[in-house]
Amino acid sequence: MPYVNKIKRTIKNLEKLSKGEDVDFQNEISSLEKKLNQLKTRRSGELEDVKKDHTPWERVKIARSLERPKPQDYIQNMIEDFIELHGDRNFRDDAAIIGGIGYLEGLPVTCISTRRGKEIKENMKSNFGMPHPEGYRKALRLARQAEKFNRPVLFFVDTPGAYPGIGAEERGISEAIATNLLELSDLKVPTFTIITGEGGSGGALALSVSNKIYMMQNSILSVISPEGCASILFKDSSKASKAAESLRLTSFDLYELGIIDQVVQENENFDEKPDTTFKHLAKILRKDLTEFMAMDQEKLVKQRYNKFRNIGFFETTSKSSLPEIHSDKKKNFFRGLGRMFGFKK
Question: Dihedral, CA atoms, 299, 212, 49, 6, nearest 10 degrees?
């Protein structure tokens, strides 16, 4: 695994810096060693076998399949006596976000999900699963309501991303997403996110600041679509399959990286008969919710905070390894920079 080797290399670099520069990096080194141990334990042989069944690009296609169960199907089949609640109390009700209350195997919960259609009319009604700002504000309103009544929150996410239209920009889509990130990080009740299909960029992240993140076996989660990545990096959107491999967007890759907490395996005919998988997921969520509901609020928030603080690591580069810039190149660079700001020389 290349990321394991990178962490090992970074630890060595920090140890050299500690000795050479007389700076104490012991906390950083301990944190990286802990992460390294976590990644090693996540290399499950069972998951490795399932991972080989499809390429990353094939899993992207499966995640986007119209026949695949949508987030609203999870709510319909797993949540009893579900009552949908509407509106953000500010602008309107966004059909791309479903929210309400119900029972998960007898436990009262608040459920919030994106909505995706299986045919064109349903997709147009739900804006193809791309929420507007009012959708994220509705989600936050219901999450705060759940906190008030001490109900855990379940997020079911399947979206290509937040809606990038002019109206969404005018009503503050970036502010709505940022506010969700801030508020959900400090919520005093357990929050679980299940990525059911496509998890696209900030649109998915705004519903994913949770104590635990689960991904269905054939779901994906990435900062950009493979087509968008290929257009930027390779200048050719047709190289999306190559970009999909580079993005490490499958549930298996993200589990190994320590970004998600569990991969939920799907039964063979999941598209046509998902009941077995729904029951399996419901038992997993019920068990984990019971454990997290027993935590005191301070420990619950701290667990969520530490989870996200421990994602990723930085790699150091010694000064001697950096290429030197010759004086002529420096002059040309600063001359060009000056012209950008209106200086003639």
Answer: -70
